[in-house]
Amino acid sequence: MRTDTIRAAAVQIAPDLSGRAGTIQRVLNAIEEAAGRGAQLVVFPETFVPYYPYFSFILPPVQQGAPHLKLTEEAVVVPSPETEAVAAAARRHACVVVLGVNERDHGSLYNAQLIFDADGTLALKRRKITPTYHERMVWGQGDGAGLKVVDTAVGRLGALACWEHYNPLARYALMTQHEEIHASHFPGSLVGPIFGEQIEVTMRHHALESGCFVVNATGWLSEAQIASIHPDPALQKGIRDGCMTCIVSPEGRHLAPPLTEGEGMVIADLDMRLIAKRKRMMDSVGHYARPELLSLNHDARPTATRHERAAPLPEALEAEPQDV
Predict the structure, then answer these.
(1) Is 46 noted as a catalytic residue in this protein?
(2) Amino acid 312: pLDDT
(3) Average pLDDT score over residue span 226-232
(4) Pairing verdict, β 181-186 and 41-43
(5) Catalytic residue among 95, 103, 128, 164, which?
(6) What does pTM read for this prediction?
(7) What pLDDT score does 320 carry?
(8) Dihedral angle sign, alpha carbons of residues 142, 147, 150, 156
(9) For strand 264-271 and strand 5-12, is the pairing parallel, antiparallel, or unpaired?
(10) Does some domain include residue 61?
(11) Is there a catalytic annotation at residue 243?
């Protein structure tokens, strides 16, 4: 039975809506602060760099051209100087960092989660498998290769973004790989108070069902930022509230008071012995599973738009050489 304790930090801060440089600096500052408070794992909100595409939730498609192009220009390429800066911070402070970014891959954007190990190695880059509703106007789809649990300095770590948690098979794919800590994130400042309530239910349920810790971070927008996205008070209601930054134990309990408004961090110590305590009673991918009745077919191959095959040799060249 594991006896170590991991200190985790879930960060709820506002991005810099002017672009990735300012937001990356906020990420670096938060890593330093969290590490100074003893954190070995630091989790940031969904697509935090440069910022979540809040415009897509309140603007009709015909009006999204300019903000979509700006997001494309400010999105992150992996690898890049921005990812190298985060990797260096993880290495300098010896902490694992989970960061949500808008990833630009040539002409497309993706909702990506980056896991940096404590030595600065990029342990995982995954993409949200199905963007939700309005997000489909902004991001492409990920693939099954990203549904992966990785070994890190803090243990076996898995990650999903936002409403991927409403895809039970996506969660089960990570559960079958025996994740010990689940890093999750949502945009925050979206939909209204009901969104925060739904996030809490979802995070606590995943912790209970998987028998793992959940570290969840949501973003935050100031009133000035909300006004800068759209001046109409009626539409501003759609990009306010909806925050639930929290850390939950395998027993479904909050390990610290959740953060539902303003900027800050939720920090808690994860007693890894609680995983065995929970799974002794209910291991959903072990003694409580019925694989002969129910099992998961997970296609973990990366998708590709080009499959290269070598041209066949001319028939004359394929013939065996003749002795002279």
Answers:
(1) yes
(2) 79
(3) 96
(4) unpaired
(5) 128
(6) 0.94
(7) 61
(8) positive
(9) antiparallel
(10) yes
(11) no
Residue of 74, 82, 148, 162 marked active site: 162
Number of domains in the chain: 1
Per-residue three-class SS string for 139-150:
CCCCCHHHCCCE
Q: Residue 264 — φ and ψ, nearest 5°?
A: 160, -170
Give yes or no for a cis peptide into 50 (omega within 30° of 0): yes
Give 147's contacts (C-beta < 8 A, 6+ positions apart). Answer: 126, 129, 170, 173, 174, 298, 300
Residue 297 in domain: no
Residue 324 lies in a domain: no
Query: Containing domain of residue 33, as a range?
Result: 5-289
Cβ 56 vs Cβ 138: under 8 Å: yes
Instruction: Please give the Cα distance from 101 to 79 (Å, whole number).
Output: 12
125 catalytic per annotation: no
CB distance 246 to 182 below 8 Å: no
Backbone φ and ψ of 5, nearest 5°: -120, 135
Residue labelled with tokens 């961090």 = 265
69 occurs within a structural domain: yes
pLDDT in tens, 147-158: 999 999 999 999
